[in-house]
Amino acid sequence: MQLSQEQMVKLLKGNYTFSLWSMSMLITRLKGVYASDASFSSLEKCTGEMNAFVNKFRTIMGNDYVILQKL
Fold first, then answer.
1. pLDDT means over runs of 10, the chain (71 residues)
2. Distance between CA atoms of 43 and 7, rounded to whole angstroms?
3. What domain range includes position 20?
4. Number of structural domains, the chain?
């Protein structure tokens, strides 16, 4: 699964609760990055980082993966 930039904006601007602690920490950090620089390049970087995380840890994400699919 690859998140699109539109899905990433929903994730960064939304208020979702995730059970995987490391994912919550990543999203919190990415929200800060995007809040300080909402440019296209910043969004691309955030999307790439989130997609790399999801591809690496999708087997242990459980319900968090389902939330991302519904974005």
1. 95 95 97 96 97 96 93 92
2. 11
3. 5-69
4. 1
